[in-house]
């Protein structure tokens, strides 16, 4: 399938159009398959962005250093994926109990136009109290996403509104800021919770 | 609705008489289980509802649409997550359910997308959702509205 697509584009071959199609295909369905090494988020200490949390505090990558971090992207107008992920995360945190107390949990919007600080505050209030909501100017959101190697895209909806396609994986970082692993969208608890423990344990090893 | 029942009866009679007739799935053949939805914040955001739709009949049924007084544009949507972990959502089109089979509308897959809400979805309330089938049959279910953070029908 992938080979055929490559040959197809090769034949159509010449110009920029083919190249653009190829790049589009590469990014959407391409060999990218299970996140290649180049697609791993950079270390938090290498990221540079300025956002505001749902209580109005200025935050950035340095806010996350020193404690393990669980972060994901979404938007509050999202009917299916985002409430599901937030509920999943709330469930994992409940499972971990005290273990997760010293963890940063951050929901970063990819829709800052609609997700103001107040909107984020109301929304995260419905989920686990550890979850922080971060928003900010579009160009800063773009920088976070770039650091995480996450993508998002505004898509018109039939209702006349728009929706957002976005990376739905949950990212885990150690207290040092090092990327540990990802939890796929809606991954069962039996897999997700041990992954979180890995991020937590790495922190303890680093501390000793 | 009345016409529908009459044709259904006619079909049953013809079948009994040994004649082959086109598929006519009655609403009595469609069982909807575990319907639930999440409360909304206000009316600007779309809602989503989930359920299992079971075809207990002997003929295929095809779900072609939805109606509800709660939303101007209810539609079956499908969330897909690609190999890079990017999720997107699009109309699922018509959905055939083979005899004896069921389809699950559940988080991360198919969902009843409730666009242009006419009123907020309040936890503890219910709303009627009507499933429309290609042969003219319809099934209406009363969908409970659970909390925003609900994960499934039991929450
Ligand atoms: Cu949808």
TrEMBL record, chain A:
Positions that bind Cu cation: 78, 82, 166
Cystine pairings recorded for this chain: 78-82
CDD domains named among the record's database cross-references: SCO
Keyword Metal-binding: yes
Domain Thioredoxin residues, every copy: 40-205
GO molecular function, one term: metal ion binding
UniProt superkingdom: Bacteria
Keywords: Copper, Disulfide bond, Membrane, Metal-binding, Transmembrane, Transmembrane helix
PANTHER family hit by this protein: ELECTRON TRANSPORT PROTIN SCO1/SENC FAMILY MEMBER, LINALOOL DEHYDRATASE_ISOMERASE DOMAIN-CONTAINING PROTEIN
UniProt family annotation: Belongs to the SCO1/2 family.
Protein name stated in the entry: SCO-like protein
Protein's organism: Celeribacter baekdonensis B30
UniProtKB/TrEMBL annotation, chain B:
Signal peptide start-end: 1-25
Cited InterPro entries: LpqE-like (IPR007410), Lxx211020-like (IPR058248), PCuAC_sf (IPR036182)
Pfam families recorded: PCuAC (PF04314)
Keyword vocabulary terms for this entry: Signal
SUPFAM superfamilies in the record: DR1885-like metal-binding protein (SSF110087)
The UniProt record lists the keyword Signal: yes
Glycoprotein among keywords: no
Protein name as catalogued: Copper chaperone PCu(A)C
Organism this protein belongs to: Celeribacter baekdonensis B30
